[in-house]
Amino acid sequence: MPVFSGQSGLTLAQALDLCQTTLQSPPLPSQRTWGLISAEILRATSAAVPNNVQSAALSQFGSVIVPQANATMAAISSGTARDQGDPGYTDPQTGFNSGSSESAPAAFLAANGGQVYSSPSCPLPPTTVYDAVRLKLRIRVPTNANGFSFKHRYFTAEWPDVCISYNDHLLCLLTSLSPGIRPTTTSCSIPCPTRSRCRRRSSITAQAARRARRT
Description:
Blueprint: H1 9-15, E1 35-42, E2 55-58, E3 73-76, E4 101-103, H2 106-111, E5 128-140, E6 150-155, E7 168-174, E8 184-187, E9 197-202, E10 206-210
Antiparallel strand pairs: 1-5, 2-3, 4-5, 5-10, 6-9, 7-8, 7-10
């Protein structure tokens, strides 16, 4: 069943089919198993909780987009993570304003010259993000794992309006305690930030943010 209210980070993790949980510091060594340690729905950089309509566990999005497995899929949005007819739906062309603004993630800015991505034909935006929502997952991976990924679709209502005041963005940020694995700070919406949708496979931690108003 879809979940539109009261959803938690665990709700979205389960919608990603990440259902096995574990403890950060179990009492017995034998209990130190792989799985999800924690899951949170946050804003761009703070521990503040986004508006409820910015996330959901959906059973479908339109008549074509359906879960890859099991009953639901995770949705996060700088607008409303809702399909037409869902409670709280707002037309994306009309827009949604949560009233929140924060700096873009420091790790992402440090890895990208202190800037957020922008089309070469458009002015560089400032580094404040608006209406952000972040799904933060802490995972202990299996000892024999070589990597992991998730499928996602990125939609934006900007096309055909380009170089406008706002530009939606999806970031995938990965950090690891394993030696030799460098932090991943990439934009999952590249190379198609101005198209109506983007279908890709990416690393596991996602954050959707509305980029700053250009000046």
